[in-house]
Amino acid sequence: MFQEESAPLVGDVAAHHRAMSLNVSDVVTELVDILGLSAVAAIGGVNETRAVSQWMDGREPQRAQTLRFTLQIALMIATREDRHVARAWFQGSNPLLGDRAPLLMLRNLSLDEIQGPLMKAARSFARR
Q: How would you class 117 by CB atoms within 10 Å of its CB: exposed for 0-12, middle for 13-18, buried for 19 or more?
């Protein structure tokens, strides 16, 4: 999936289409590839990575829309060259989000509350 280029994987509209058209197990698989098992577990609201593995095997997660939205953002900000860019973005303090970390916002707050600010921050980062 990742090739040697340092441009975002896809633009925001294409990222939205991809995240919404995949089945949930594929969404989770792509997220794990980009962000890692522990981050996906936290965003999905579980304490054990075993649950993430079960989601990849077809079990339905409780926070499927949050996971889809997370994939959308991850595809917008990840680079083909280095998925660590996305990991750093999700885990780091973001000045556009009141110095909060996107991963913690996704884990702790409702999607309705954070969707707009996270999308704005991701679009800003993707334009870098």
A: middle
